[in-house]
Structure formats: structure tokens, C-alpha cells
């Protein structure tokens, strides 16, 4: 029925591709493309004779618009799934526009080189205007709205779990549970243990840049920025237990504030163990999280990229990770004139994920929503030209697909609130 080009072959792409192959009536043909074609070939070989989906592979540099255009024109997909790095969002969007193909990704754009003078000038202007200093934001991709509308194409942004499913949860709450929403708290808990002293559950470079940045939240329509990891709460998570969680800046806050404008406060919390925080602070203090190149014995290296090479590959954590994740949203608001609270979330087991798709739950909880988002676009359940985040579409068929493909929702109509 559909031909899909998937760019990326890391842990999340591995999950998304395997799940696409479970719906071979929709995903009839897939091309896996990456800078390292051998990784694509190995994944394709592992799926041989296990799916009716026809799988091919290709080599592509996703930083090159010309290479991307050549590949897209040669393969002629109905959809490009960008499961590469967020640094490459804009080049892939440009290529999709040039070729007349729909686009989707799992995380919003951020630059690889944060010292680039041209980018820096725009970034510093945005910091003053918006009120937060994170390197990643939606403005770069929202700028493509008119281009995609005029081309009659859809670009779906941030269709992982958070962002992605969390926004669908918000749309679902607004549609079915509330007349007005007052507060949203997004809670991301990983209760897994991989046995390493220090490792990240997804791309180390992206992960460490995100969690070491200043935190921020939205209060009465304005951004409030705080020092990194300076607001801590404890919460007792279903199926996981009591965990420390910290307020972070996260991209879905930006779009939710636009699309659910009556919300008075939106916050995002993520759990971290003390060992992780101690290692991260030490690495930050000695400059290993820097994106500024340094000269070492005649070679220019970027410290955080060098660190990435030293840390365990997130895709290798699956067989040794035990425990569960719990990710969801807690709401307060009103229904029929009465105060109401509501919590919608998912619990995912690391070992069960590995048994099914040879992945830990962090990659699983991102890869499955990516597949389900693609399913929505290919079946035209989500079908409108322009650039959109997940909460701008009907949440019902998407959440039904998540229930079916491994991320079933749970609900609590009397949750403990976060103070």
C-alpha cells in the first residue's frame, strides 16, 4: 500500500522499523537509509523472512540536501520518516519540499554547532523574545508552515513519546475529560537499571545537552527559567515506586502553550538517579559537555562528540536493562463547572521490549509512536497540509494504534498531584 523512506538506523529507528514490519499491509515497502549502510544492511538481514514488507537499504549523508533529494527521487516514497539526529531536521524538510513528499520526525530542530555566528544571532534574539535559552525550539520548523501548506504536504513534528504521545494525551484530555485545563504536569520516569556506572538511554550528545541546560516552565503565559536541576520533587510512580524527579525544559511545552492557550501552568519533570547527576556534573565541570571544538595533538575534536564515542551505545543497553518506565500527564481543570483531576500514562517493561524488538524501553517508547504517527499519515487519518505537532490532530486513532502496537494507556481519575 505504501512506500516509506526511513532515515536513521540507531536504537529508535530499529524499533520503528520492526514495528512497521508488523503492519506490512500498510508499510509494504521500506528503505532504511543511514550514513553507515552496513548498519542498515544488518537490520534488513535480521528481518529477512520475518515480514512481508519489502526492505531495501541505502547510504545517505542527511546533512546534504542534494544527497537526500537524489535518494528521495530514486526511491519515490509517500513519506520520509526522519529518525536521525535533530541537527538534520531542516535539511530533510528541505529535501521533502523539493521532492513533494510528506515528512515526520521525533524531535525538534537544534543546531550541531552552537557557536555558528549566523545561528547564534537568531538564537540570542529568540532568547530575549521568548524567555528561555534552550538550544532547541520549534521556531525553525514552524517557519516552514507556509511552504508545506502551499505544496499540499504534511510535516508532523516530534512524534515520539515526549514529545509526541504526551501531546496526544493533552489533546485527549481536552477532547474527552475537560472543558478547560488549568495545569499540565508531564512526568517522565525511567525506573530501569542497565548496570553501568554511567550511560545514556538515547543519543548521548543530544541527551546530555538537554539535561544540562537551564530548566523552564510556563506560568500564566510566560516562560520562567531556572538553573539546571534546581527544582526537585518526589513522586510515587505506578509499577516503579518512589523516584526523585527534576524540572527540565522540554519542547512540547512550547507547542502546548500555543494550542491549549487557557492553560495557566505547564511543567515537565524527568527522573534521575544520584549517580547519573554526579557523573553529568563532573563531565560538565571539566568541559566534556562542550560543543566548541578544541585542538588535541593537531586534530580538532568536539568534547561532547568524543565523549559519545566513549560511552555505551544506547542500542546495546537492551539485554542488560531491567525495570520499567512510566510516562504520562497529570491535569487539573474543570468539567461541567466542577474541579477535576486526571492522569493518563503508560508503563513499559524494559525486558518485555527486548524480547519483542531487541531494544530497551526508552527506544521502544519513541519508536512505537513514530510508527503509529506514520500509520496515521499513510492511512489519511491525519491529513492536512502544513507543519503540525501531535496535539493538533485527532488523538483517538493515534492512541488506539498505540494500544494495539505496545504502548497501552492507563488512567487515574484521582491522582496524587505534584506540588
From TrEMBL:
TM helices/strands, residue ranges: none
Ranges of residues in domain Saccharopine dehydrogenase NADP binding: 4-156
InterPro entries: NAD(P)-bd_dom_sf (IPR036291), Sacchrp_dh-like_C (IPR032095), Sacchrp_dh_NADP-bd (IPR005097)
SUPFAM superfamilies, sorted: NAD(P)-binding Rossmann-fold domains
One Pfam family matching this protein: Sacchrp_dh_C
Span of domain Saccharopine dehydrogenase-like C-terminal: 160-407
Protein name in the entry: Saccharopine dehydrogenase family protein
Organism this protein belongs to: Lachnospira intestinalis
Amino acid at each position: 500500500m505504501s512506500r516509506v523512506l526511513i532515515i536513521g538506523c540507531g536504537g529508535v529507528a530499529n524499533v520503528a522499523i520492526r514495528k512497521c514490519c508488523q503492519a506490512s499491509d500498510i508499510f509494504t515497502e521500506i528503505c532504511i537509509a543511514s550514513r553507515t549502510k552496513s548498519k542498515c544492511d544488518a537490520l534488513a538481514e535480521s528481518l529477512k523472512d520475518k515480514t512481508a514488507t519489502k526492505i531495501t537499504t541505502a547510504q545517505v549523508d542527511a546533512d546534504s540536501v542534494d544527497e537526500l533529494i537524489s535518494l528521495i527521487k530514486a526511491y519515490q516514497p509517500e513519506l520520509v520518516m526522519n529518525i536521525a539526529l535533530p541537527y538534520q531536521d531542516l535539511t530533510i524538510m528541505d529535501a521533502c519540499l523539493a521532492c513533494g513528499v510528506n515528512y515526520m520526525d521525533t524531535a525538534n530542530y537544534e543546531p550541531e554547532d552552537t557557536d555558528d555566528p549566523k545561528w547564534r544571532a537568531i538564537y540570542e534574539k529568540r532568547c530575549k523574545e521568548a524567555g528561555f535559552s534552550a538550544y532547541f525550539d520549534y521556531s525553525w520548523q514552524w517557519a516552514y508552515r507556509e511552504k508545506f501548506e502551499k505544496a499540499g504536504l504534511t510535516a508532523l513534528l516530534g512524534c515520539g513519546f515526549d514529545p509526541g504521545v504526551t501531546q496526544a494525551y493533552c489533546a485527549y484530555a481536552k477532547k474527552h475529560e475537560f472543558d478547560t485545563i488549568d495545569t499540565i504536569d508531564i512526568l517522565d520516569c525511567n525506573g530501569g537499571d542497565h548496570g553501568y556506572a554511567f550511560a545514556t538511554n538515547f543519543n548521548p550528545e543530544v541527551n546530555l545537552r538537554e539535561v544540562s541546560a537551564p530548566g523552564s516552565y510556563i506560568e500564566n503565559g510566560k516562560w520562567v527559567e531556572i538553573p539546571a536541576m534546581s527544582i526537585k520533587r518526589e513522586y510515587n510512580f505506578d509499577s516503579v515506586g518512589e523516584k526523585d524527579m527534576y524540572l527540565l525544559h522540554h519542547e512540547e511545552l512550547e507547542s502546548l502553550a500555543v494550542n491549549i492557550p487557557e492553560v495557566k501552568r505547564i511543567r515537565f519533570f524527568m527522573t534521575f538517579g544520584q549517580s547519573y547527576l554526579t557523573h553529568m556534573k563532573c563531565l560538565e565541570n571539566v568541559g566534556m559537555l562542550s560543543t566548541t571544538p578544541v585542538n588535541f595533538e593537531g586534530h580538532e575534536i568536539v568534547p561532547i562528540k568524543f565523549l559519545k564515542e566513549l560511552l555505551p551505545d544506547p542500542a546495546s543497553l537492551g539485554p542488560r536493562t531491567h525495570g520499567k518506565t512510566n510516562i504520562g500527564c497529570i491535569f487539573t481543570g474543570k468539567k461541567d463547572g466542577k474541579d477535576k483531576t486526571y492522569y493518563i500514562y503508560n508503563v513499559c517493561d524494559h525486558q518485555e521490549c527486548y524480547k519483542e524488538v531487541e531494544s530497551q524501553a526508552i527506544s521502544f517508547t519513541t519508536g512505537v509512536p513514530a510508527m503509529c504517527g506514520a500509520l496515521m499519515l499513510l492511512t489519511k487519518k491525519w491529513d492536512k497540509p502544513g507543519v503540525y505537532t501531535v496535539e493538533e490532530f485527532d488523538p483517538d486513532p493515534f492512541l488506539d494504534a498505540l494500544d494495539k502496537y505496545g504502548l497501552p494507556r492507563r488512567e487515574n481519575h484521582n491522582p496524587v498531584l505534584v506540588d
